[in-house]
Design a protein that fits this description.
Elements: E1 2-6, E2 12-17, E3 20-28, E4 36-42, E5 45-55, E6 59-67, E7 73-78, E8 81-86, E9 89-95, E10 103-109, E11 112-122, E12 125-132, H1 139-150
Antiparallel strand pairs: 1-2, 1-12, 2-3, 3-4, 4-5, 5-6, 7-8, 8-9, 9-10, 10-11, 11-12
């Protein structure tokens, strides 16, 4: 089981496979409404960074700044959403519109439903549980895409 833990009051989000720490995300946002810069570290080594600019719900822009992943990735903007492309395969997250459900999102690979993301609160903060229905060998990259969507999600939201 993959999971992300967003701790209240801590700017570092942690991503796990079981109990193994996969990577840590550090976000810098100089002031509200400005461009955020997110850096992903594995064992204190920078493996990926991106910037995000949000201006209300009407404008959202993502840019990959650096990447040192096993596979090269890029993002495509489809309407007002982003798709992560890895080895010619497209990963897409479809978020629910109901804030009262535990299910946060469905995970799609090349248009096929391959899993879901559920939200759970506990004393460590907010946990996002990634339930994959099958092994695609791209689960790690689903987590990377989720980091891009999760900028600004606070532990109490």
């Amino acid at each position: 089981m993959y999971r992300a833990v967003f701790s209240s009051g801590n700017s570092d989000d942690k991503y796990f496979r079981g109990n193994e720490l996969l990577f840590t995300v550090k976000t810098k946002q100089p002031f509200i409404g400005s461009k955020s810069r997110c850096s992903i570290f594995k064992n204190d080594k920078l493996i990926f960074s991106f910037s995000e600019t949000v201006f209300t719900r009407l404008f959202w822009n993502l840019n990959i700044l650096t990447q040192n992943l096993d596979k090269k990735v890029f993002i495509e903007k489809v309407k007002r959403k982003y798709v992560l492309v890895v080895d010619g395969r497209k990963i897409f997250l479809k978020f629910t519109n109901n804030p009262f459900t535990k299910r946060l999102s469905e995970i799609y690979l090349d248009g096929n439903l391959i899993g879901e993301i559920n939200k759970k609160y506990d004393k460590s903060g907010t946990n996002f549980l990634f339930d994959f229905y099958e092994n695609s060998e791209l689960e790690y990259y689903v987590l990377i895409l989720f980091t891009m969507y999760s900028v600004g999600i606070a532990g109490g939201d």
